[in-house]
Task: inverse folding
């Protein structure tokens, strides 16, 4: 009887089918199992067979389709691993000479640069016509097509850019391995990387590989970085770069201070960041008497510009989508239909990359913070009815508390650090973040036209950043600012069960 009531609701059926797909992906991810595709196809055939047989029996038809959704999730996870015999990962454990291009934005760190190279050729001298003569072999290469991506660690110089074609000589291929509690292999799998290239001599042999549009976006990003370094000194230049496009280098001691006070998200491009900023911006627009519909499109346009500045990587786009979903929820009056949109978005993102569901903390924080802003914030906003709405102060407090509560169990599980001052610090500083970002953005644009005016704007933004840094430094000096506290997976699950009960209970009590 209970099942028949559930399947009569189209909205609930849709959510359950999406949950089935995500359950299939999550099961394979958590258990780290790879199943022969033959068995997967048999499961799909069986699900379709029972779906047709029990077409007129609603409950059994529902169960058949749910089973099919689970099997499709399992299939998506299985085919995410390289299947081609020409994939470079088939040669792990061997030394090779490879040719490819830098297919992602280089990851610049203090100890060197990490590159992801999309391989398209293998060079070999194993031609019997030359025997073992190294002189003749040097002037001849047998080119063989190959595919896949490799992860290459190199020094800070010489430095290569996206699209540069590289020849990797003496590349020792290795399969990524987990490092203690860190699933390093799955971390690289998110970028379709299943091989690490060690000890290679790198030679640049060409340019203009990859996507021309993405090259242009990265060129713009580098130009913006140059302007930022002109307008601000360190660590404020890196602070502004973090606000505008998620740059994490150059902050030095500020990184630890941000971590202790729980505000690291302000310099990270994630849904946790974008959803909060989007909420504050739309509230600010409405407070300026801008109609809600126009405010919606203004903020959506601002998010798109923000994403372009950040480089339009997959994680950045996912974060932007989550931020826009929050705006849609506000535009729709937070109706229940946003749940379908949110779940369908999670399915689409997992369909595009199944490894993000379990192994991408950024995706999880983005999804959960969006859930908090859509479902939890309406339940607690009455607690802050006495807080003035000027400059979006009330909305800032409610949004901050909602996102903090909903992501806390995951943060304790993933990172094992609890910031006891996170909530007050976020409430004190978050209201000014959109203004600093807007002033910083205009300062960068104006610097290309009239540098003296840009310097004036940069001083205003610098004052805002000084305000944040001083607040963070003061709270970070408190002995009780942060404690190391890691909860096990069952503890995280129990905490989310309590949160789900609270949201559903409040919802049922208000209907």
Result:
């Amino acid at each position: 009887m209970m099942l028949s009531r559930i399947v009569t609701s189209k909205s609930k059926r849709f959510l359950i089918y999406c949950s089935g797909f995500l359950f299939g992906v999550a099961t394979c991810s958590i258990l780290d199992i790879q199943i022969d595709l033959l068995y997967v196809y048999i499961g799909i055939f069986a699900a379709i067979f029972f779906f047709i047989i029990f077409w007129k029996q609603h409950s059994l038809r529902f169960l058949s389709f749910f089973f099919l959704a689970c099997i499709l999730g399992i299939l998506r996870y299985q085919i995410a691993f390289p299947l081609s015999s020409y994939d470079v990962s088939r040669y792990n454990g061997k030394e090779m000479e490879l040719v490819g291009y830098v297919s992602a934005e280089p990851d610049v760190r203090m100890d060197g640069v990490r590159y992801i190279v999309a391989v398209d050729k293998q060079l070999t001298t194993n031609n019997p016509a030359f025997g073992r003569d190294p002189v003749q072999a040097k002037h001849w290469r047998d080119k063989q097509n190959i595919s896949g991506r490799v992860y290459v660690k190199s020094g800070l110089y010489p430095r290569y850019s996206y699209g540069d074609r590289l020849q990797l000589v003496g590349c020792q291929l290795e399969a990524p391995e987990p490092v203690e509690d860190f699933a390093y292999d799955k971390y690289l799998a998110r970028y379709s990387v299943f091989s690490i290239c060690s000890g290679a001599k790198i030679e640049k042999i060409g340019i203009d590989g990859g996507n021309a549009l993405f090259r242009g976006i990265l060129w713009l990003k580098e130009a913006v970085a140059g302007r930022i370094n002109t307008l601000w000194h360190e660590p404020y230049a890196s602070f502004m770069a973090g606000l505008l496009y998620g740059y994490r280098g150059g902050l030095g001691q500020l990184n630890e201070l941000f971590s202790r006070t729980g505000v690291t998200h302000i310099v990270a491009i994630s849904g946790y960041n974008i959803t909060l900023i989007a909420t504050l911006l739309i509230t600010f627009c409405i407070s300026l008497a801008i109609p809600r519909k126009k405010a919606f499109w203004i903020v959506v346009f601002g998010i798109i510009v923000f994403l372009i500045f950040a480089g339009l990587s997959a994680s950045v786009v996912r974060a932007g989508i989550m931020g826009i979903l929050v705006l849609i929820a506000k535009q729709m009056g937070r109706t229940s239909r946003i749940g379908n949109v949110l779940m369908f978005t999670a399915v689409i993102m997992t369909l595009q990359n199944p490894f993000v569901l379990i192994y991408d903390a950024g995706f999880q924080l983005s999804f959960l913070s969006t859930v908090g802003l859509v479902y939890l914030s309406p339940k607690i906003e009455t607690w802050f009815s006495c807080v003035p709405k000027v400059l979006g102060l009330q909305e800032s407090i409610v949004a901050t508390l909602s996102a903090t509560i909903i992501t806390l169990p995951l943060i304790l599980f993933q990172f094992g650090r609890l910031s006891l001052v996170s909530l007050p610090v976020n409430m004190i500083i978050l209201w000014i973040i959109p203004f600093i970002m807007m002033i910083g953005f205009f300062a960068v644009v104006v610097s290309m036209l009239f540098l003296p005016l840009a310097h004036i704007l940069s001083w205003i933004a610098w004052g805002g950043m000084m305000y944040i840094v001083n607040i963070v430094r003061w709270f970070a000096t408190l002995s009780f600012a942060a404690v190391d506290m890691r909860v096990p997976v069952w503890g995280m699950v129990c905490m989310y069960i309590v949160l789900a009960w609270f949201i559903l209970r409040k919802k049922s009590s208000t209907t």
Residues 451-476 form the longest helix (26 residues). DSSP finds 20 helices and ten strands in the chain. Strands lie at 95-102, 107-109, 112-124, 142-145, 149-154, 165-174, 196-198, 201-206, 417-419, 482-484.
